[in-house]
Amino acid sequence: MSKASDVWEQADRFVLDNDEFLVVSHLHPDGDAIGSTLAVGFILKALGKRYVMVNESPVPQKFRFLPGVEDILSPEEVQAREKPFRRAIAVDAADADRMGITWNLLGSDADILNIDHHPTNDRFGTVNVIDSDAAATAEILCLWADRLQVTWDRDLASCLYTGLLTDTGGFRYSNTTPKVMALASRLLRCGVDASGIADRALETMTREQIALVRRALDSLSFSEDGRIGWMWLKREDFQETGADEEELDGIVNYARNVVGVDVGILFRETEEGTVKASFRSREMVDVGKLAQSFGGGGHARAAGCSLSESGEKVERAVLEQVTRALQGGGS
Amino acid sequence: MSKASDVWEQADRFVLDNDEFLVVSHLHPDGDAIGSTLAVGFILKALGKRYVMVNESPVPQKFRFLPGVEDILSPEEVQAREKPFRRAIAVDAADADRMGITWNLLGSDADILNIDHHPTNDRFGTVNVIDSDAAATAEILCLWADRLQVTWDRDLASCLYTGLLTDTGGFRYSNTTPKVMALASRLLRCGVDASGIADRALETMTREQIALVRRALDSLSFSEDGRIGWMWLKREDFQETGADEEELDGIVNYARNVVGVDVGILFRETEEGTVKASFRSREMVDVGKLAQSFGGGGHARAAGCSLSESGEKVERAVLEQVTRALQGGGS
Question: Cβ of A16: how many Cβ atoms within 10 Å?
């Protein structure tokens, strides 16, 4: 029943009235998770608060250039030196499970400030600042820093910019709003290195990733009408290239980006012998619904699911469903 | 000796005091050339002026979604129905040669308004509005539309946005300034479809292009220290994939984007039997100077040259030169 302004005041009080915080985000963190974790750290630092930043997963190589990133600890490192925390600030995490085992670092009576932009956020916090109109959690934090009268210095601005940049797919997704661009402009005025960050966060690829792209492209097939494009990565593709899951980032887009394709799919065999399918769509098909029909989930334009049948069966079943969806026969 | 404000006034008078204009840009047009051509068209239309837009080269497929693009004529189409023009507005063209044969559509006494952001612009116009601090010619046109009190409607804004977007490499190059982002924000407020334009102008690939990427990646090699990455595209790669020169766009970046690489090179055989080398660099090497030493040219981070020796010799000579440049022994 609380109004938005009340929630913001609660969020302000949460940090102003307390002294020590655990800052957490989701496992397998992306640029917004890492950028927002660090940004909250810089905000707390500016306010003279004590805090510990943690993530169950290591920070991906491409975000290790960010200022303060060496202070994001593993749960083991935190556990070895701290008592359970009584206050946590969770950023970009749609539910408590997404925080992984960092959850165990909290006391049973811990209060949580939950700041997120996912529409599916289940409001697991004591205070919940959820703005699903925001392109990124970093966008919400821009406003919060202003409310708390924290100056956007270059370090803070670089972390916020990274969140905006990555969650809008480099200002390419439909969440690229006038507000996002106005915030980006203001962040750049703080001395952010736009091209350096874009280079590291979006452009740089490992040799293993290049090898994986080659193999994925080798497998690219199209439906007769050209509206479905799909690729396969088998277990041996990972073994022989030395690539890991983290390096799959963006590969599915090659299938979607081809002229005439409406739905792009990447099938990949996991170590457990299941098949994961990632979907990207242009306009016609709600792949979120499609993935749901296979027990998965996601958004209308990007989704995925996991299937335990053989590759051939999975491919046939998925392609049939996509074809039906393209014919307007449901998703 | 004229001050900047005088030049702007001359530009304003150029359109306000005359009635009919030929709008031209450079051949093999990119997003800024097409976007700026169309933007000038919309500005002239708003001012109630008559104009004809022309380009020697066809509009690349990926920009054919832009409003008004069907009104960009070929020189032949213009010649068939118009007398020589007495006034031309040239956009994004660093010198008159870049306009190709559209030059022939001008009367011998024609006045030219030359609007451009290339620092190498040779001021071939009667009035020259050259701002090398602008990220794109479209950035200059944003200001000009304001000066002329032309409202940014959705069509004009979409063309200007396309110029900004493409000339900053999707807001990834070092010319991505706070001003660019502020203009982008204002353009999006006019109803521009940011994701639709990014999708068409930056993401979409032809099947031929995908096939070319595969072949280029198959040839990717690295120097022993990993600081040089290079790829080859032979004549048969073009013949067998059906790809053309236009579809090379961006492929060289795969070599540069690999972790540890400082200079990425794409060698390709042309139909005439020469070898063209494209260079991209991260930080260490001024590839503009490097290309110059082989009779080519370009910028510090992106350049190219053409060589008439055999592939093997070219590769050896270029790699030796790049190695020397990396060792600080000149470019």
Answer: 10
